[in-house]
């Protein structure tokens, strides 16, 4: 798995909680609205069909009342008229009535709208219902809904009386209603989506406040999470504050332990070193050499332990401006005899995520080394650059116009105690210390040729 500059694997990219909530709510809302639309249209279709059938029933009763003679004999049929609806008089209008003899199958009476044609009502069975309903195809190929019953005259003759209407009216009415329902639900759904987006935004606002509070702690503006949070995330806030306090206690114990260790070891070593230096014994020189090596190694390990402890302090940040300006003034004074021009450039409000003394030590060593070798000028530039994981890094560049170093020499000077020129004052620990401190902070240092003609030191450290 690919890693960052410290070899740690990058975390897997996670989906947005807000997008997940929004997507889930929107999908379920869309399903609910679609189901509601289908149910509404189905209920409306049932209502329209029932109303249509009730109209057919009224027409059927009117047809029976108008077709049977009113003289009391009930032995003859007569023209019933248009049943109160002029569409029964328009040819192929889609509205028809028919009276047919059940014995002979001959059409006794029919509406003018049939224009001499007939409608194919399914034949009755002996045990059939008194009133039948159904769907048939009309003479013009249109879909019809019909209602049919039988009547018996006084002479015993039986007739089938049927009324049929255009079923397309039902379909058109339902389609119109369905389109209106779809438009209404679409507008409602759009409003619901906006409401969901607002609800998700408002609901996740406490998490955004917590993120900003954590950033304030990371950048050194706060030491704990403050404020009132909802009950659902209040336990998380309490645990984070407890973790921060525990971190501080661990760091404090580590510092105390480091201090005690330094006091316990450095004092006996100093006594041994002083005794050996004052002795004339042949082995004294060897004791001095080994004791100094032990002191150097002890100091190196103590420095690393101290920085490692400080690196884990949450909420520590150092302003770049005061440190670089102060070091520039110090370098001008220390190397006043050379008449060097020491210039610094940095972004406003840039901060280093760490202790000031560590930044002083790293940047001071780089600037001091540059001033020792520079002929006329030293330039320090600082920039803020983006890093993976929503982090920012400080990019320091220290340029001088000295003789510079060969590529093979650049890696050698980063080793502790390595000096390429014994005539220049120093212990050879400066760049090695910078390298050690930078690595502890998760940064790095590299050396290259400077455009000014000398050496360029490139230092990367965590920023805020």
UniProtKB/TrEMBL annotation:
GO terms for molecular function: phosphorelay sensor kinase activity. It catalyses: ATP + protein L-histidine = ADP + protein N-phospho-L-histidine. The keyword Transferase applies. SUPFAM superfamilies: ATPase domain of HSP90 chaperone/DNA topoisomerase II/histidine kinase (SSF55874). One of its GO terms (cellular component) is plasma membrane. It is found in: Membrane. The keyword Transport does not apply. Pfam families: HATPase_c. Keywords: ATP-binding, Kinase, Membrane, Nucleotide-binding, Phosphoprotein, Transferase, Transmembrane, Transmembrane helix, Two-component regulatory system. Gene3D superfamilies: 1.10.287.130, Histidine kinase-like ATPase, C-terminal domain. This is histidine kinase. It comes from Segnochrobactrum spirostomi. The lineage of its organism: Bacteria, Pseudomonadati, Pseudomonadota, Alphaproteobacteria, Hyphomicrobiales.
